[in-house]
Structures are given as C-alpha cells and as structure tokens.
Amino acid sequence: MAGSMHGRLFRFISFGESHGPAIGGVVEGCPAGLRLDVQAVQRELDRRRPGSTALGTARQEHDSVEFLSGMFEGATLGTPIAFIIRNKDARSGDYDHLKDAYRPGHADRTWEDKFGVRDHRGGGRASARETAARVAAGAIARQLLATVGVRVSAWVSQVGGERLKLPFQELVLENVFTNDVRCPDPATALRMSTLIEQARAGGDTLGGRITCVAQGVPAGLGEPVFDKLHADLGKSMFSINAVKGVQFGSGFDAIAMKGSEHNDEFLERGGRIRTATNRSGGVQGGISNGEDILFDVAFKPVSTLMRPQASVDREGREVVLEGKGRHDPCVVPRAVPIVEAMSCLVLADHWLRQRSARL
C-alpha cells in the first residue's frame, strides 16, 4: 500500500497491526558504513513503549527490536534494513464489543468506508501501535544525521490549558525524559501531571502540544515547490495519530504582525550569515537557512473515554459504547519520541537529496 512508505532516498515502509503477531519496517537507502548502535535504537523504543510512563496506557510491551537484514559486523551494508517488533501483550477480547459499532472520533467508520473491512482489535493498522516501527526507523536516521552534527529534540510544551512559557533556549533538554510528562521544566511538568491524573479519574482525556527543535541542520535542505522542507515535515507530523495542527516559527502569531516585525534580519556572526529573530522557524522558501528549525505539533484529546459514549452501529442504530481496554488519557508524553523520529526521517532524506543537488 503506497500510503505506508515514507521518503524518497532514505525510504521507510512500515507494516503490521496493533493486535497482529508483530509490527515492523524496512529502511532502504541508508548509506553503507554507518556504525549502527542497536542499543541506542532500543533506547528510543523504550521511551515510546506502552508502560514507559505512569500517565499512559497499562498495556505492557517490551518493544524489543529484532534486526533481520542490512547489517554486518555492526555496520550498515547499504542494503534494506529489515526489523520486527513482536506484540506480546495484546488483549483482543477488550474490543469484541466494537465488531459492529463505531467509536466516536476514531478511524473505525472511515477505514471501513475505504476498504470495506476493518480490524476492530485496537484499531488494527490505524492504531498508534504502528508508530513503534517509525521510532525504530527514526533512530537509524538519527544516527545518520549525527555524523554531520544534526541533533533533534522534542518535549511536551502544553497539556490542556497548562503551557510551558519558557523559550527553548532556557530549557535543559536533557531533563525531558526525567519525568512522566516529558516536559523539561519540573514545576510545569508537575502541573501537567496533575491535569492528566484529574482527567483520567473522570474517565476523560486531554490534548496537548509538542515542540521540536532540529539543531545543526545545514542550510540548503529542501526542494522547490512541492517538497519544501517544512511541507515534508508538516506532512510527516500530520501522519502521526491524533495530530491536528503544525506551526513553524511564529506560526499563527504571524497573522497579528506587520512585515516589518516578522521579517528575519540577516546578521554576520563569526563568519556566518545568521538571522536575528528566526521567526521563520529555520526555513525560508521551503529551504533550511542554517538556523534552528523550530515547530509545534498540536494533538487532540484521545478519543477513547473510560465512560459511556453515544454512537451508532453498522445498521445506523443508536448504541452506547462503554469505555474498555487500556488507553492513554493524554497521548503527548509518549508521542515525543514519535515526533523526533519523524523529524529525523525527513531530515535524513533531505540531507541525502541535497548531496546530489549541485556540483
């Protein structure tokens, strides 16, 4: 299925369903000779896996990655890198009541409209379980980017109405994974945690915001017109479950600015041309300008509630769905590694494309 492939040169295809025997993927186009740290890939998966935070789902998956091809003696061969992640803790019976009914806010009805059939067990391939494969592939892309000094970091900057107000330059990003919320500011993280627990106690859910920064990105990445760098980053973010908005730099705040306020001024700093304000978020004309690439990703509240919801079945009859299963009351803490992974996949692809852009 074409919709399961990502990238042009650094390509990734994922496969598998939430309650199938395994999920996995194939990475093609990774250059030969990359010393691949498999344990670093596993650490990325550990940050996303179910049960990794007390604020998330109670499903327990070890998410142990098994590499099947593409490496020899610790280095990539330049051939397809295949891997699988086995599902160990699926409870398909939790979803029996959804065989003929549609969950509000989910892809149940649209998936059936498209294919005429759906896997009702945890949403099948529409489940966020699929994103574990993306994290593994993104961890490979991250290691490729590290060879040229590119670093990608993401963190939770808002949960419900509680927002982190500090600019990222004042944050200690190494603290992101020291708490269950994945917010680098301890005081804000505590308030966010309280909100999530309150929502869970009431059988409800919350949305939030993840901010991501890519540092060390060389100028010149991005293609004219349709494959602009921020367009590809935006598309990749929107491919993540529950994402409803993406903004770069000043984003929607630019509406209230005048051009004289919004334009980035060019300065010479240490032999490099830099910008003073970076309101563009590090991308101009769809091409990276050498500044930090900074963007926000908005996530809707999780659609599965642990309380009754009105819906309909296949025949259009009204039904009441009881909340069952193991679900996150707020998805953003576990989505941080996913945002990072998708960013790395896009940047790795565009870095390889840029190498063939000129003599």
Structure report:
- The chain has 359 residues and is an alpha+beta fold.
- It has one domain: Chorismate synthase AroC (Chorismate synthase, AroC fold, 4-Layer Sandwich).
- The chain contains seven helices and 18 strands.
- The chain has helices at residues 38-48, 108-115, 131-146, 186-201, 229-238, 259-262, 332-354; strands spanning 5-6, 11-16, 22-28, 65-67, 71-72, 75-76, 81-86, 151-159, 162-163, 208-215, 243-248, 266-269, 272-275, 283-284, 287-288, 293-299, 309-312, 318-321.
- A five-stranded antiparallel sheet has the order 1-2-3-7-4, with helices on one face. It has a five-stranded antiparallel sheet with strand order 9-8-10-16-11. A two-stranded antiparallel sheet has the order 5-6.
- The longest helix has 23 residues, at 332-354.
- The radius of gyration is 21 Å and the shape is globular.
- The mean pLDDT is 90.
Largest sheet: 5 strands, antiparallel
CATH class reads Alpha Beta
> What spatial form do the alpha-carbon principal axes imply?
globular
According to DSSP, the number of beta strands is 18
Radius of gyration, whole Å: 21 Å
Give the structure's gist in a few sentences.
With 359 residues, the chain is α+β, with helices and mostly antiparallel strands. It is built from 7 helices and 18 strands. The chain has helices at 38-48, 108-115, 131-146, 186-201, 229-238, 259-262, 332-354, and strands at residues 5-6, 11-16, 22-28, 65-67, 71-72, 75-76, 81-86, 151-159, 162-163, 208-215, 243-248, 266-269, 272-275, 283-284, 287-288, 293-299, 309-312, 318-321.
